[in-house]
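Q&A log
Question type: sequence-to-structure
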Amino acid sequence: MSTSPTALPPAARPLALPVLRRVTPVLPVVAIVLMLCLPATPDSRVTPADAVSGLAVLWAVVRTSRRALRPLTRTAAVVLGLPVVGIAVAASGAATPGDALTGLARYLQAFVLVPVAVVLLVRDRRDARLVLWSLVGLALWQGAIGVHQYLTGTGASYQGADIRAVGTFGPTNVMDMATSVAFGVVAATGLALGAQARRQRVVAAACALVLLLPLTVSFSRGSWIATALACGAQLLSTGARRAAKVCVTAVAAAVVLAGGFGVGTAALQERLSSITRVTDAPDQSVTDRYSLWAAATAMWREHPVTGVGLKAFPAYRDGHAPLALSSGSDTEGAGRGYWRQPLLSPHNMYLLMLSEQGLLGLVTVAGSWLALLVCAVGRLRRTERAPDCAVAICGLLLWLLVDYVYADIGGPSATLTAVVLGLAAWWALAPDAAPATARPSPETPR
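Response status: OK
Response body:
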């Protein structure tokens, strides 16, 4: 007598299908992150991650419609929809219809559509934890390639040697590997600090320490500063004594890595020392950055409310920049020949918005981020036992807001920015994101 599959006891049924069915809604978000493991196509404006992010948005809309769910709370709709105002007004002032369409698409993708999709597709802490571990996995992959590039001299050119780690992103996107690895460091640090299980704490802490090496050889000063501040804030949120112990461990690991792998080279020492002398004896890259910041400020003074229009910074740059600005930066190595990279943005997201979108854009877009940070940190402080994903997400959002002082939207890592903002919005605004138990507020009677 044969037994039908449905007659089998629950313990005998395959577990793979229920597990896969449970994680299916969040898989498009994970796929966005994993698509960045693929080599970047030079001069391509649309990456596989961009295509998958569009599918994720479509999947979120279809799934929400079929389940007849209220997609967002009123607060979430206001906070996530606020950037649309400034972006749309700036797009109407673009120099050409092509600039308006491409700029509008990129800004809406990174700051509105994909974050909303992440909020809709991440249902609980397990989903958020899966996305965070995918960020760590991407960082390990890109970091391994970057360390190999540094050790074998096959990276991007830096001070005449092909030693700068850029991962699969290429020499024209030197900041993208640093961004992906820094996200991995911050995510792993948060998972290690907030985890209840010893095994996860050990694995996450080991990943964070290992990723310090590729972050170092990325030679990205802005990423170093943002990572130090974000991880420091995460540590302080768990207590000063624990923060001191972890800092001592991290310093010891950095010394071992530097000595064992030869990271402490003259080029690295020069890069580190340049952070403290950006005003006394700045190198050409710092001089160019100051010149671009001055140009962005001058544009804003002429168009204070709505700016010069989306993607219009390059057209107005030469008319407002000091004479010290060079024509571009030299890039080569990592499988590509010499290329003169034009300076098309101020390398400061806040000044880019101020120059192209004016005060309206800065208040609406950056105001949305500030609201996310306040709500996320406030929920973290009110929660008695904050989940590991909450510590990691708050650290990622803080990293992004600090790094935007030295970087801006652009390159393949823009989709990572969108995912991080979506995770932050989920933790800050989703009603079911916080645990059931929370610290009583001062006004609540005990």
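Response note: Residues 47-59+69-288+330-429 form one domain.
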